[in-house]
Design brief:
The protein has 234 residues and is α+β, with helices and mostly antiparallel strands. Helix content is 32%, strand content 18%. Bound molecules: zinc ion. Zinc ion (ZN) binds next to loops.
Length: 234
């Protein structure tokens, strides 16, 4: 079953006073808007996972930078205190010898008598998997191998520098994340019709099929998941 566009949650924009406004409309006499990061899934679902910031390319990062002074700090909610604050680097399967940018840091400045809270926010490159030397595409390829053949064949077939033990840990992390992933996907479309889940592998296969249906046309469904839901895939 394919999803309709209507099923895609649209971000809401809220005035600083908390007045909810439809996209594109501004209240008279006010110029300051912040994007409410909690509105992506609704505040009542926040317990599922912490809301994160992602960007997919230089254009999206530049857009984040351009509105940084108008964006509220997710920790202290102050506006006008966020500044750029360096980069996080790491390896992945496409670049096993050279570190690439995994995230960019934003600082809520409390220096020079500025009123920020002093905490930092990571803005993640949506194609990276946190705490793993893997891209979302690499993870997608590995998980697909793991649900279609034997796990040993998947480890042999996945061309990367990760050890078997690390790949077992990757699989375990995916298993632990499945319930949360399913819940997030259900808000976009129902799961596809498939044979009953009679093993952990068939359950995993169903999650991957659901992910494909939830983001039709996405060349990297895990990237689309992270950026759309504002949460880590796993
Ligand atoms: Zn702050």
């Amino acid at each position: 079953m394919r999803c309709s566009l209507e099923a895609i949650p649209r971000p809401r924009w809220e005035h600083l006073s908390g007045t909810s406004l439809p996209p594109g409309l501004s209240p008279e006499g006010s110029m300051i808007f912040v994007r409410d990061p909690l509105s992506i899934f609704g505040r009542d679902r926040l317990h599922m996972a912490e809301v994160r910031w992602f960007y997919r390319d230089a254009t999206e990062w530049n857009a984040i930078i351009e509105r940084l002074k108008l964006t509220a700090c997710p920790h202290c909610k102050r506006v006008g205190t966020l500044i750029r604050h360096g980069l996080l680097f790491g390896f992945d399967e496409q670049s096993p010898r050279r570190k690439t940018v995994r995230a960019r840091r934003v600082f809520c400045s409390n220096r020079n008598a500025r009123p920020g809270c002093g905490r930092t926010i990571s803005v993640w490159f949506a194609e990276k998997i946190r705490r793993l030397s893997l891209t979302t595409r690499g993870l997608w390829n590995f998980l697909q191998l793991a649900v279609t053949g034997t796990f040993v064949a998947a480890m042999r077939g996945f061309d990367c520098s990760l050890s078997d033990r690390t790949l077992q840990r990757v699989w375990r992390r995916f298993e632990l994340a499945q319930s949360r992933i399913r819940t997030a996907l259900m808000s976009r479309c129902p799961p596809p019709d498939q044979a009953p889940e009679n093993s952990s592998r068939s359950a995993a296969a169903q999650v991957l099929a659901h992910l494909r249906d939830a983001f039709p046309g996405a060349d990297s469904p895990i990237t689309a998941f992270q950026q759309t839901t504002k949460t880590f895939f796993m």
